[in-house]
Design goal:
Blueprint lengths: L3 E7 L3 H13 L6 E5 L6 H8 L4 E4 L5 H9 L7 E6 L2 E2 L6 H9 L3 E10 L14 E3 L5 E3 L2 E2 L2 E2 L10 E2 L7 E5 H6 L12 H11 L3 E12 L10 H18 L2 H24 L3 H16 L1 H10 L17 H6 L9
Parallel strand pairs: 1-2, 1-4, 2-3, 6-13
Antiparallel strand pairs: 4-12, 5-13, 6-12, 7-8, 9-10, 11-13
Helix pairs in contact: 7-8, 7-9, 7-10, 8-9
Amino acid sequence: MNQITIAILNFNGLELLQRFLPGVVEQSANQPVAVIDNGSSDGSVEWIEQAFPGVLMIQLPENKGYAGGYNEGLKSIATPFIVLLNNDVEVTPGWLDGPIKIFESQSDVSAVQPKILNCTNRKKFDYAGAAGGFLDRLGFPFCRGRLFETIEEDNQQYDQPTPIVWASGACLFLRKNAFDELGGFDDSFFAHMEEIDFCWRIWRSGKQVLFCPTTTVYHLGGGTLPAGNPRKVYLNFRNSLSLLFKNLRSDQLMVRLPLRLILDMVAALRFLIQGNGPSASRILGAWMDFLRNFRKEKEKRQRTSRWNFGSTELMERTDSIVLKYYLAGKRKFSD
């Protein structure tokens, strides 16, 4: 019986598919594998059809990004569980077992993240997710095992199953009915932080997001937009503002958005000092676009208001991670 579909989003990732797809097919216990192609022009589709005819191909006419690509592609998938897997992830034997057991035994869990280690330096956590994601009160994301530029070695220090604020989109296990009922990803995010927004919606709906330490995958990273890319900087800052505006209560927004403005301008100044003017300008552009589209942001906030605004306990545990990291010298999650 097919319990779970492995859904891989692809855009001109032929070399990555050739490297990682064979292992995914081999290690997936005869569960269906689907590749959602975002209008590739590099021969990805033709190679898959020839090398892996058993893989379901879902072809989209254009690049809809991570959010739009999955929203559209997952309409063709009907298994009770799905795992959204980047095309640059190496899986391991039995990697599906732990998350499926969690779903089967805990009906209040809608999303699960495995341990994500770095594919190049395999003793270290990966930047994108590590051992589970969290948010501070101002909406800055961080992970167990990764705070900003500091990435820890995996010494089993976070090998406890635990509730987390968000699960990484690099390897994201979901209940299909939860994805559908909560409206999927926010298309306007295009890429970056849409999984955080969706996981926050899971918490607001009264369900949970968990970290599963018994499953490990290895992420190459940087295949779409490398760290420091000005486009990535823009998406992260713009989407972070939308994330906060959609999900915080009004009284929280009145205090936290002005504080975010101050910290974001400090970040822009830091980029300028480093000689990275394009990234500094993209932070300013993110704020300008957020304000320019304020009416649309209000409409999105209204659409998500049917889910309880009060479920922010995990987010309220941490004050500014920026100040703790850069001023107080807290370099590890355990600190």
